Amino acid sequence: MLHLLQLEWLKMRHYRPFKVLIILYIVSLLPLLMIISTMDLPEEAGLDSIFMFPDIWLWLGYAGNWSTFFFLGFLAILMTTNEFSYRTARQNIMCGITRTEWLTSKLLFILSVSIFATLVYVILGFLFGFINTDYVVTQRITEQMYYIPRYCLMCFGYMSFAFMLSIWIRRSGLAILAYLTYIFVIEMILRYGLHPRLFGSRDGNRYYPLNAIEDLVHFFDYKRLQLAADSVQSKDFVKVLSGWEAVLFSSVYIGIFIFVSFWLMKRRDL
Amino acid sequence: MSTVLNIQNLTKRYGSLTAVDSLDLDIERGQVYGILGPNGSGKTTTLGMVMDIIKPDAGDYNWFGGIAVKDARKRIGTLLETPNLYPYMNAVQNLKVIAHIKKVSDPDIDGLLKMVNLHQRRTAPFRAYSLGMRQRLAIAGAMIGDPDALIFDEPTNGLDPEGIAEVRDLIGRIADQGKTIIMASHILDEVEKICSHVAIIKNGQLLATGSVGAIMDSDITIEISAEDINALKYILEQDEHIGNISNIGQEKLSISLDNDYGTAYVNALAFRHNITLTHLVLKQKSLETEFLEITRNPQTKTY
User: Across the interface, which of B55, B85, B96 has its CB nearest the CB of A267?
Assistant: First the structure.
């Protein structure tokens, strides 16, 4: 396992876009949080406490949701499609690792990046929290810390989806296009076009893959959301999956992404 | 001798095209084995299949008498089609990746870079290398961990004359170390100069196998002439050891002879029939003429 992780590190440590994307991920968190804080949301969303414990965990997490989707998703695509365009994937296999080991090596690295990204989230969360919370009470810090493991699962979810597309498509430009098109166009059509037609209502249209992953660290607090929904008098107002639903469905989808990646890699020529 | 690579009935189809058609091959330790064939004859596909990057549709292969394929691959250095290395890494970093995959803990990177004459440029990124330098670095990569066998696929393709000479010289030096080399090429001259054994492939089918020497002098060609060329032709046609008589212009005949018969036999034959030869020349066939003959009439021959 360690041998395979080291292999990916040897490849990535000299890869400039890797460093650039990681840095972009880190430095984009604060500006994103600032943008959220200026958004015109109902009072119930509680934007006044955005930098304080425990709300920081949700709002910083939501900022990280965007950063992860773009920068870490692109990283997963580049680190995988490069191996096909440089034809180093075939050379790696010829040098003596199996296809399974090759994929495992990449997935271990993606997992490590997810853990690192979560660590950044935790450190920044504590930093902003301690600076902005007037009376730091331990209970307030830990109150919503369940977002931390969910954040890590979210990172791994986006990256494993990007990874699967890269194994399938193999070309970086096309894979990035497919990644963006899927989340912004295809899944939207599925959720708001196809789903109501098939099932008669929008109920259950949040169980689609990328939405389930997004809802791991969702837009704003679920309980407040009910209040907000009541306040805007709209039943179609955004609903999110509950925590355990998001975790369950994301895990299943991640399992499918990984399974498809292995399935494609095992049966295709390199 | 022990077998390095044994291929049985290996087949690969791309739609209606059969790229490799029921191929059988045996490559023994220490051989410098050329796989010779025109472009698109299935050489790279064959090598890709035995290295597990292309999935065969039928058939089987085993390395080193049947050890696990992924362990076998660690003992083989491969350069298939193009040098496949990370463009943003320099020579040393690229070789370290290969050493890591092959689990070679203490690779002699400096020694290898000196061997391929890239030691001075070792910190320049791969993308800045010329094609010849890339090819040489890939050969250094193939040599990591002192492999038992090496695969070179079209190693001089696209190189300038100087690059060709360097790469051939390098392969020659590796062959002198006693390593088994499998080299695919469409260049006859290259195979003739470097290889000890050769398999000739066309349209995915094996046309001939054997040692380069045996293929080249399996049939002897003699140029012959006499005053009465028709009489000469008549007596030659009656003889069972002589085949393939053809006219060269008005004056000369070209004949091929069975393996153990030479110019003396022809001379004595003519003498017995009271014909005095005015011209008698032994033509050593080149692999090129042999190749053209073999690829023209497809029927598998073993020499």
Answer: B55
Handedness of CA A246, A249, A255, A258 (dihedral sign): negative
Domains of chain B: 3-215 (3.40.50.300), 220-284 (3.30.70.100)
From B71, B76, B88, residue closest to A14, measured CB to CB: B88
Q: Does A198 touch chain B (CB under 8 A)?
A: no
In chain A, domain spans: 2-267
Is the CB of residue B181 less than 8 Å from the CB of residue B152?
Answer: yes
- How many Å lie between the alpha carbon of A159 and the closest alpha carbon of chain B? 22
| CA nearest neighbour of B150 among B76, B82, B99 | B76
B105 contacts chain A (CB < 8 A): no
* pLDDT for the residue A46: 66
- Asked if the Cβ–Cβ distance from A10 to B97 is below 8 Å, we say yes
- Count Cβ atoms below 10 Å from residue A142 Cβ, excluding itself: 12
Give the strand pairing for B149-153 and B58-63: unpaired
Inter-chain CB proximity B88 and A15 less than 8 Å: yes
Digitized pLDDT (tens) for each residue of chain B, 303 residues in all:
589 999 999 999 999 999 999 999 999 999 999 999 888 899 999 999 999 999 999 999 999 998 988 889 999 999 998 999 999 999 999 999 999 999 999 999 999 999 999 999 999 999 999 999 999 999 999 999 999 999 999 998 888 898 899 889 989 899 998 899 999 998 888 888 889 999 999 889 998 888 887 776 666 778 888 888 888 888 888 888 887 788 888 888 888 877 677 788 888 888 898 888 888 887 766 677 777 777 776 566 666
Identify all chain A residues contacting B73, using CB atoms and an 8 Å cutoff.
93-96
Rounded to whole angstroms, the Cα distance separating A248 from A213 reads 10
Q: What are the contacts of A263-267 at 24+ separation with CB within 8 A?
A: A264/A164, A264/A167, A264/A168, A265/A99, A265/A102, A265/A103, A265/A167, A266/A99, A266/A100, A267/B55
B69, closest residue in chain A (CA to CA): A96
Chain B residues inside the 8 Å CB shell of A11: 86, 97
Question: Does the CB of B88 have a partner CB in chain A at under 8 Å?
Answer: yes
> CA separation (Å) from A43 to A37, A96, A228, B220?
12, 60, 8, 99
Spatial separation of the C-alpha atoms in residues A64 and A60, rounded to whole Å: 6
Residue A16 has its nearest CB partner, among B88, B97, B103, at B88
Subunit contact A94:B88, Cβ cutoff 8 A: no
Which 8-state DSSP code applies to residue A125? H
Give yes or no for a contact between B22 and B59, defined as CB atoms under 8 angstroms apart. Answer: yes
Q: Using a CB-CB distance cutoff of 8 angstroms, which residues of chain B are in contact with residue A10?
A: 93, 96-97, 100
Residues of A in contact with B53 (CB under 8 A): 90, 93-94, 269-270
Residue A227 has pLDDT above 70, yes or no: no
